[in-house]
Amino acid sequence: MNINIYKRLLSPALLLCFLFAGSGFRAQILTSSPYSRYGIGEMNTSNFSHLNAMGGSFSAYQCDTAAPYFINIGNPASLSGLKFSTFEVGGQAQFTRIISATDNLKKTNINFSYGSLGVPLKHFGGMAFGIMPYSTVGYKITSFTTDPYIGTVKYVYNGDGGFNRAFLATGIKPFRNRLANFYKSTLYDSLIRHSNYNNIQRLRHIKFRKELLSELSVGVCGNYMFGSSNQTTDAIYPGSITWYNVRRQRQAHISDVSFNAGIQTDFTISKVKEKQKIDIKDSLNNVIGQRDTVVFRTLKHKVKFAFGAYANLPTLLNGTQNDIIYTYSLDGFGNELPLDTVLNSSGIKGTIRIPLEIGGGFSVKKGEKLTVLVDGGVTNWNQFRYFDTRNTFKNSYRVSTGLNYVPNKFAIRGLTYLQRVQYRVGFTYSNGYLDLKNSLISNYAITAGLGLPVGIGLRDDIAVVNLSAQFGTMGTTANSLLKENYIRVIVGFSFNKRWFIKYKYD
Known about the structure:
With 506 residues, the chain is mostly beta strands. The protein has 7 helices and 21 strands. The chain has one domain (3-176, 215-497): Porin.
């Protein structure tokens, strides 16, 4: 099917679903970063609170075999693991100290972060839809230049707004019965019946391949991108009858569809090979020596290895741009008196080229207690275009790692509550795509969080409060640039419930 047909089908549906929710985004100031002046603004993470607490690692993250379940929209292939209907919503508060070589400024921003509903699709997959910010613009920068003929000119740069993402994603396991069918096959019976060393090795290799194929998940996500950004630049000249102040106002709107996809698979180790020495006896049952033999030891906790990869596909987002430049003066009370319009263009059509982002990672899970994630990705930002304006962005990369530990998720209520709490830590680093004054604007953060069970915690009615905090730094004070030290706190709520189930008996 032609991709344009997908766009015509997907855009109106998602727009109607999230029209009410999306209208609330426009009133928010989501960031105070001066670096949101560039490109389409500061890029927001595609992770929810529980993954942000683990450094934002998501490529190989999978739902547990038992509730609670969480939505991973960064890699839609993980949705195949949903067993209950899952609703997630979250908000964040960011406390930023912007530091220059001579001064510093504190900023606070509080806003909605995400909302999503995921549902299982019978026994082979799951789907989710929701809404979240994609990029945000929010800055006010003042600078001064001195000219011997004019005097001191004040420049003021203002920006607000951003773009939002309404998504509809699904993940399935297309070959989920391959391993089960192998256990029912005559080949399996034959290998078990004639269990010599060669057949045991062959059986293990076949089971490994069948398991990888059975656990293979593929996912795709369609995103409706919408919103607007506003940028204003003022050149304010000293009081003079020769020079008038100049203001440029630029507004960009987008409304289009993008896609991303992912893949995951895993295998589990329940036994390990070990060498053991056994006694060699003669006909009289006397020990005359020892020899090595191979045995398989059953692990107390199974170890699960998962692998994942994702791709945010390159996209041309259609949009329009309004541009106006005019001169004005200030009266004695500071009121603006517009004078001449230099440029006034509206509804100019163009495109924003979003570059390709690819990444992958792996996870190791020991039993139902410990999960360790390692993740990375690269983005071809040198391919970014903003309404046909070429930018000097650099290709960027990201690495992150994190872990989740829960002492006993199946503990009974009461004094064992702390054993059911999920403890999370992580780290993330990105070299950044902005190269200003020969300095890359890198970003790194240490993360931590908790998953707090709430309510009565019945098997099919589970709720978790997810708390995460990021302590990070972006930018530098070298070369007259700015550094941001920030604390970002995200509070999320996850609800698991058996919805849409038709019961046989009342």
